[in-house]
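User: Structure tokens for both sequences below?

Assistant:
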Amino acid sequence: MGEWQLTRTYRSTSGEVRWDSLGEPGRPPVVLNHGTPFSSYVWRAVARALARRHQVFVWDMPGYGSSRMTAGQDVSLAAQGRVFTELLAHWGLDEPRVVAHDFGGAVSLRAHLLHGARYHSLVLVDPVALAPWGSPFFRLVGKSSDVFEQLPPALHRALVREYVTSASSPGLHPAVLDRLVQPWLGDEGQAAFYRQIAQADQAHTDEIEDRYGEIAIPTLICWGEDDTWIPAAKGHELAARVPGARLELIPGAGHLVQEDAPAELTAALRDFLD
């Protein structure tokens, strides 16, 4: 499935963040934000394709992927929105093109609407943006995260594999599934997995939901037609709330559009970003 390694480090207010960039400096910047329970790894194919014309920035949110995972860490949407704003300043990006998936959508929206982060344009891919959100499994774990955290490692591994698998409509390549699950294994990873779910408070999107009408930048909303985590109906609702937003449905793709239909998603992004 190709190598994917983030080689640079930024010390954020929520812990050490791993990041990297692809493409030649000086080209129009694009930032790719991942969701939960994923990492920048899901953007690998899209990032490499976009790097032909842009400088592409990728990062793992604190508590995710190769970034630092620590006990008591604040990995809430509020914290991630602040960290993203910090990162943009660290990178020296004034108005980048931002592409955000799932929780990354909420992170990008909070940074823009609450922290004054300025974007050239915004693409939201199956974002967490409108209430109610969270699958039945997600809500169950959120209520009993301390219990789930004590699962035997083999049961935890099976649970995470099944959960991640359900994000794809056609199914994930075994090597990709292994890579997506791996950060959540071991004592540190298992605790981090349930920590991020326990802190996933819908109040963090309720706080900004009524402000989507203030978004005044070009906005594209992409949605997997077969998304069972957040149904495509939410895409239509979100597009109606953001002035001038265009909705593009991607056939055959579930919630994890980057894995299910990378070529179709990349084509939509290139058309919009160009």
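Moving on to the next sequence.
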Amino acid sequence: MPDTSGSDSKDDIISIQQLAGRVWLFPHDPDPGNIRGSVAIIADDRGSVIVDAGHSPAHAREIQSAMAAAGLPAASWLVYTHHHWDHTWGACAWPDVEIVGHVAGREILQNEAARPWSHRYLRDEVRANPRLGPSFRARALAMDTWDGFTIRPPQRVFTDELTLPTGVRLRHVGGAHAPDSTVVLVPDSAVALLGDCFYPPPAHLRAPDDGPDLAMLGGLVSGDYEWYVDSHDDPWTREQAVANGLV
């Protein structure tokens, strides 16, 4: 995909990219240790829809700078594909947006917001449960400061499906990775944003035989959508899914 950020700065290592139609991506970090997924921007003259908040306020601010450089409208809605930290911890850096998510994630995030997050707290939790190590070490690396940090539960929730004023469709799919997993569909651009919905459970909850939910994934691939984006990999097409035997 072409780099359309419009920036010539040598410091802009990561830039926003147009995937198809009005869907743009701020790409994931390929280093799995950083647990930093892609963030989608669905640009509309009524205000952009941001799909996932970024894994930290600093990440969110990088995305905002890239949006401004590309001339995209400011965010009006922020949609959570699910409640996990790497999809929600940037939310406090998105002012003046309506946060939308599945009802199953609201109470989880309310409970998460009450925890005393700090580097010391992360270390104490890992000592108590070493299986949390990869996730909590990534959180520590993501957060250069805790000043002003808050976890923001969704303000608007839905149960099965919801269509935003811009025509963006949200559909709850659940699954083993997170009970509130939601796919975000942009029919006019033929793009399906899958979050982590078909991934196995998080590492600290994963059994040795847990793997991707390929049955769910195959059911999500349809002739209505050409592009598919899961959060921690490069975008792929329906043609690639067919070639790999998913449909």
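User: Anything stand out in the second?

Assistant: The chain has a mean pLDDT of 93.
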